[in-house]
Amino acid sequence: MGFALCFLSPNVPIYKEKKIGVVSDVYVKEELRRKGVAKKMFDVAVSWFRKNKVRSVRLSVAADNLEARAAWRKLGFEPFMIDKRMDLEDYMRMLKAKERARPTRIVRKKTKKK
Description:
The chain is of the alpha+beta class. It has one domain: Aminopeptidase (3-Layer(aba) Sandwich), CATH 3.40.630.30. Helix content is 33%, strand content 19%. The chain has 3 helices and 3 strands; from the N terminus they run ββαβαα. It has a 3-stranded mixed β-sheet with strand order 1-2-3, covered by helices on one side. The chain is elongated, with a radius of gyration of 25 Å. The protein starts with a strand and ends in a 13-residue tail after the last helix.
């Protein structure tokens, strides 16, 4: 049917909660999606998290995975953080392109008349 990988993680020290639950990976066979399988797996995870005294659960989902985003939203997850990603090779190409596009400045020195 599918699988769910969940674990406990120490929380960032600035937060009151010392540990959080993390849903790392979830997969449901395509033909079984939208039939409550992910919810049943998540319910088992919630039970396990509660036994371990976890008060909040976090997960990450790809921005372009609209199906997964909708499924998690339906279960009550809300946006919390926005992760950004950059390919450094693309960044270097962008810098080089800007350098090539920058017009050369001509510096004229003022001369004193005698």
